[in-house]
# Entry
Amino acid sequence: MGNRPPRGHDPRTPAAPGNTTATAQMMPVVTSDRRTIACATEPFSYGSEGRLYFTADHQYVVKLYNRPEAWREASLHTIIRKRAAVMGHHVEYWSRYFCWPEALVMRPSLGMYMPRARPGLRPLAQFLSPRFRKRLAAEVGPGVLGSWIGHVGIMIKLARTVNRLHNNGLCHSDLSTNNLLVNPATGDATLIDCDGLVETGSNILLPTVLGTPDYMAPELVIGMMARGVEPPQPTVATDRHALAVLIYQSLLFHHPLRGSKFHSPDPDEDERLMLGKGALYIEHPTDHSNRPKTPFMRASILGKQMQDLFARAFIEGVRHPEQRPLAAEWEGALVRLYDQTLPCSNPACEAKSFVYVEGGSTRCPWCHTEAKGPRQIPILSFCKPDGRINSTTYPVDFRLVGWPKRTLHTWHVELGKLPGPGVEAAPLAAFQWEPDPRARAREVWSLVNLAIPQMADATGATPVPVPVGRAVELRPGTRLVFGGGDRARVVEVHMQGI
Amino acid sequence: MNGLNFGDNTPTRRLPVYLLLDTSGSMAGAPIVAVNNGVGLLYRELMNNPNALETVWISVITFAQDAKRTPLTDLSTFTPPVLTAGGPTALGAALRELGRALDSDVIANSPDRKGDYKPLAFLLTDGAPTDEWRSAAQELKQRAKAPLGTFVALGCGDEVKVDVLKEITDQVLLMRDVQADSLQEFFRWVSASVKQASIAAPRLGSGESLTAMPPPPPSIEVL
# Structure
C-alpha cells in the first residue's frame, strides 16, 4: 500500500522501560509541546497501526505507532493545527463528537496524544453483530442495546460530524463500524481514529490507509488492484460512500452490496469484485442478481426520502462518485426520519421503534405488532412559505408524525434549521393526547405552545393567536402558523387512523 | 419473532483458523502452560471483537506421538482445549491432518452459497520433526483446492529447525528465548492478526501476508 517499509526493516520500538511485573509502573512519554506525561506501561489495545495506552489520569490515550514513518510527523502536525478550524466557536460541542489529537508524542517513539472517548461508548460493530448483541444482553443487560431510534440518533451525529470534516476540506478516510463509538440507548456517538485524516487537494496529509474493505468506495477497491498506476486516494467522495454504507447497515442491519451474486470461485477475488468492479446494490430495482436469498429488511421501511438517497448512493453512486449524497443531505433526511417514528407497542421488541412511512402500515416491521394507543394520530406537514399571500397550498418541506409527548423544536418551527451547535434544543411545543376512557372516538389531540413567540391557529378565516402556555386542538384540516412575515411556517394537520 | 432481522447476508463467510501446536515432550512444564494460557488469551481477545465473533471458526491440531484435531468450531461454541505435553514431534502428521481438515472443512465459493475466506494457519513448534514431513509440506504449498491464505510458523528455542519451517512456509518467525511472556505476546499477536483478517479478510492489496499483519512483538524475529 505504498507507505509500508520494505521487508526486513525493523519498525519496532523499544519496549517500555522497567520490569514487566507491572506494579503501578508508569511509562513517561514526551510530547512535541515538551510535556512529560505518565502512561501505563501495558497497552490496553493492540491495533493494526499501533498500541494504545491510557495516561495515568485515564483522561487521555497515547497511541504509539508500530511503523513510525517520517511522513507521519508532518501529517500529524497538520491534523493538530486543523483542530481549531474544525472546532470553530463550538469547541465544547464538537469535542463530544471527535477524539481529536492534541499533541504529538516524540518519545519513547512517534505517537499521538488524544482525549479518551467518553465512558459508556462502544464500537458500533458490537451492535451490528447478532452474536455480540446476545453477549452484551446477557453480560451487561438488554438495556445496553438501546433501541432502533437510538441508531437513527447515532447516524445523525455521524452525518453531522462527517459534514463538519468535509466542510473543512478534510476526509476521515477510514469511517467504519470500529471507528465510531456509540451508545444506542442515548443516541450518542464519537468518531475516533482522527489521526488518519486526509486534507483534500493537498499533499500535506498523506493517506495512511485506504479504509476498511466493507466501507471502501468501489473506485478505491478497483484502484488498489490496478498495477502500475498511482494508488487511489481517499477523498470526500470516498468518505461519502462509507457514510452511506454505515447508515444503511446501522438502520437495516446488513451490508448494501453483500448479496448472493457469485463473482468468482476464489473467495478473495469474489470479495474484491463484490465491493469493487462488480458492486451491485442488493435492492437494485431491475438487476436482481445480488438479492439475498432469504428475506431481508429493505430501505422502503424508512420512507421515500431515505430510499431515494440510498438508491443514489448505491446505484448511480457506485460508478459515479459525484452522485453520492452529501453528508449534509443525510443529516437532513435522518433528522426528518427521527420525527416519523412510532414506538412499538410490543415490550419484547428489540427495535422498540419504527418509521411510520407515509401511506404505509402502523405495524412494526421488526416484530409485526400493531401500534397501540391513540385511535388517530396527527400527521403534520411542515410547508415552506412560497412568498404568495393567502396561498391555499404550499410546497411541503417535511412531515412529522405526532405522538403523545413528542415535542417540536427550533429545527421544526424555524426555516432552514437543523439541530446542532448554537441551535437551542429546548422544546418549543408539545403534543398532548387526552383519551376518553368511555369513548375512544372522543380522544382529543392538541399542541401546547411552550415557547413559540408567535403561534396562531389559522384554520378559520381569521387567525387566532395561541400564546405561550396555551394549547390548540388538532383536528383534520387544522392549519397552524409559526412566526410571521416572509419567514412564517405554515403547518397542515391531518388525522390518520391507526 | 422479536429480534432484529439481520437477514441472511450478515457475514455468512467463515474465516477458518487452524492452530498447529507442538505438544511433544520438550514442551512439558512451563512452555505447555504458557501455550494453554495463550490459546485462552486468543479465545478471549477474539470473543471481544465483533468482527471475529461473526466470522472466525477455530480448529486446534496438536502433535506429539501423532496428530490430533478438534473439529472446526465457531468461536462462540469453541472451548480452548487443555493441552498436555509428551512424546516425539510428529510434525508431518500434523501437516497431513491440516490438509485433511482443509479438504473437509472449507466451503468453496459457488453460485449457490458464499464460501469461506481463505484459512489462516499458525504453527508453533520447538523441535525437529520426528516423522516424514516434506511430502505433506509440499502438498500444502501446492494444493489447488482450499488453499491456505496465510501460514505462519513460529519456531521456539534453540532446537528448532528453521530450514524445515522455511520449507513449510515463507512466513517464519523465531523466538530464540522462550519465556512465558514471549509466548503470551505471540498469542496476542496471533489474535491481532486474526482480528485484522476478520475485518479485512479479502486482503485487497497485493497481499504479502506478513506485511498486512501487525508487526510481531520484539521478542520475535521475522526470518
